[in-house]
Write the structure tokens for this entry.
Amino acid sequence: MARLVIVSNRVAPPSERQQKAGGLAVALKEALKGDVLWFGWSGQIAKETSTTPTITEGKRLTVATIDLGEQDYKHFYVGFSNSTLWPLFHFRLGLLDFLREDYQGYLKTNEDFAAALAPLLRPDDVIWIHDYHLIPLAAALRRHNQMQRMGFYLHIPFAPTAIMDALPCAEEIVSSLCDYDVVGFQTEADKRNFMACAVQYAGAELTSDHTLSAGKRSVRAVAIPVGIDADAFAKAAEASSGSKEAKRMQESLVGRKLIVGVDRLDYSKGLTNRFEAYSRLFDRFPQHRLKVSYLQVAARSREDVIRYQNLKRDLDRLCGKVNGKFAEFDWVPLRYMTRSLPRSLLAGFYRSAHVGLVTPLRDGMNLVAKEYIAAQNEEDPGVLILSKFAGAAESMDQAIIINPYDPDQIAEAIHQALTMPLGERQARNKALQTIVREQSAGAWCRNSLMELRAC
Ligand code: ADQ
């Protein structure tokens, strides 16, 4: 079978690939079983971007990485990728910063990726490129005479035309997506948004519900939701519930019910609304005072981007406000940690939590929702509260679905979850377990690669 070449902005170092939380490495586990070259940024910053990759050959997996130059880190990574495209694709025009020099840096870095990768490619490779950092990479590789099959997968939402209109280089960005043979999205809604943008900005013509003709090329758009390995996660959760950390957690709760939230510290995750909602829970349903503890693990992320610095400041303040208002000398209502925790530990916390809070304002999929469900004990399961704006909500409709812009509704949902009868919890959990197992990481990999190899 043809070799698979995976390209992503970051290549996870081996330690992360084996055990650290989530990310692409976990989702790609199935794909990494074959003959694979994985190419991307090492995570290191150098004076200049190098176009000579460092290559580590393993038995089946070869990893090739390059360092990013300081200027490229600034314009490509901090700038256009995370200050322009990320807010745009999360429908947050008020947070969008666009600078022409950032866009130029983005194009240049994609050219550098192509220049470093092209010499490593074989004519019959199948190339699978991931996420918003690398939209122009197919076009850049084609300029290096690479004519292989190329697929792209967008892990985050795709913006509708009314939002895309704000991007000064919308025509180029959308046209670049039409240089792929297959373009994959998390949801049908994202796929539809892309197709509408392709017609408006790239002059493409719809030739069917999932194909476009753009210039001389035909592009296939597919919706394939990302998932997790639910059985492996369930095992980790069960194993972790006997650990000494789980015991420490139980002791610290002294019989109180646990509510858990786990996110990167990112404005798309709706954390400020969530803290506000938690505060309203005690105003509106005072019977829960002293009876619950909410643990929010918010791993710091993209700390060089100004909007993330502002968010951290807001959350630090809000956490102080909630605890200042409701704490008792022997009760801290909100436990807030701004670092990541090992996957196994999180799995155990999910299992012991009565409520999983997943309230993004917009999210491509949200794997935490799936992990929370996979970790539950079917006899006495917890309840998932899920934003209608997470891609996961398209199929996980047996969660309590909320509008994250309405903190009162979130507070009511927490109350509903805390008081839900066992029978209803079991029925909802059963339906959600089925979905999480059907829409698995393995299925995502297999279906995506089938599309790519068939084109
Ligand atoms: P993310 O925005 O990172 O991913 P998400 O899917 O929720 O969002 O999380 C990815 C992984 O990171 C999960 O496995 C989770 O357990 C882990 N994680 C999150 N916070 C953590 C913390 N504080 N400590 C330790 N681990 C933590 C992007 C898109 C999503 C999409 C994924 C995959 O934004 O919408 O689901 O890619 O396609």
Q: What stands out?
A: The pocket of adenosine-5'-diphosphate-glucose is lined by residues 21-23, 155-156, 226, 262-264, 297-299, 340-341, 346, 363-368, 371 (CB under 6 Å). The chain has a mean pLDDT of 95.
